[in-house]
Amino acid sequence: MLGLNGTPFQPATLQLTGIPGMNTGQAWIALIFCFLYFISIAGNLSILALVIREPPLHQPMYYFLSMLSLNDLGVSLSTLPTVLATFCFNYRHVDFDACLVQMFFIHTFSFMESGILLAMSFDRFVAICDPLRYSTVLTNSRILAMGLGILAKSFTTLFPFPFLVKRLPFCKGNVLHHSYCLHPDLMKVACGDIHVNNIYGLFVVIFTYGVDSVFILLSYALILRAVLVIASHEQRLKALNTCISHICAVLAFYVPIIAVSMIHRFWKSAPAVVHVMMSNVYLFVPPMLNPIIYSVKTKEIRKGMLKVFHKSQT
């Protein structure tokens, strides 16, 4: 896009895109997205309300679960305005600065989720490997400090992103490939020198996803070593069972990220719909699955929900 003097400039608005090749099924797609948002928002709000009102859930494990639910709400609400505008109202334009704000919050909440999952793996490590010191190690003040640390880390590492994009001219059109704004998508329509953006983006990914995933694996290696020395087979299964929900949440978060990276690097000729669908899975599936996973696999959460349900029936 060129200005009056022939120089590249930033567009006033950017055009969002639905799912390629599915223009005739927009109503069904909108219905699916509305269903995903409903499950995600209702499920995570239920987890938060349950932890707040039920005294037996006032424990470190559930405080970390509350952080995860709050973060998942942030992910859902960050994408909701443009996704619903695109699919429900066929309004595909977003202000350039608003797009940068959405990009910042989507990536910030995504990186925060990785940090929260790491904190939850540390919680499981202490609970299994050093149970006698569990309540003294994970005090309320330390849990709060960990949560604030995760927030500060994500905010400070992502804060330069909007400014790095803002400095670039846009000469390859203003059409994005998703119904929301992502940093890699904006780089595809930007021109000029984007090496700084790419290098800093790679640094942030390694510093967050890379480091967090390594420490999560290390935590579970130590947990597995501690569990294997337990003499009773029943006690070993009981200890591992307390980790099942967290393992499922980690897989729901990291598997789509790995799949998106693999497709982007090794299957660049893949149809556009594949890239779009995988990005949607990466953003929409974990916030929807996490409350379901913990409701099904965690006895205390399940009991609390049944208690609330029975009270509402009386």
UniProtKB/TrEMBL annotation:
Which PROSITE patterns would you find in this protein's record? G_PROTEIN_RECEP_F1_1, G_PROTEIN_RECEP_F1_2
Q: Which UniProt keywords apply?
A: Cell membrane, G-protein coupled receptor, Membrane, Olfaction, Receptor, Sensory transduction, Transducer, Transmembrane, Transmembrane helix
Where is this chain's protein located in or outside the cell?
Cell membrane; Membrane
Quick one: where is this thing mainly located? membrane
Q: How does it sit in the membrane?
A: Multi-pass membrane protein
Q: Which InterPro entries match?
A: GPCR_Rhodpsn, GPCR_Rhodpsn_7TM, Olfact_rcpt, OR51/52/56-like
One GO biological process this protein is involved in is: G protein-coupled receptor signaling pathway
Q: GO CC terms on record?
A: membrane; plasma membrane
Q: Which residues cross the membrane?
A: 27-52, 73-92, 104-122, 143-165, 199-223, 244-267, 273-296
Against SUPFAM superfamilies, the record matches this protein to:
Family A G protein-coupled receptor-like
Q: Name one GO molecular function term.
A: olfactory receptor activity
Family, according to the entry, reads as follows: Belongs to the G-protein coupled receptor 1 family.
- What's the protein called, per UniProt? Olfactory receptor
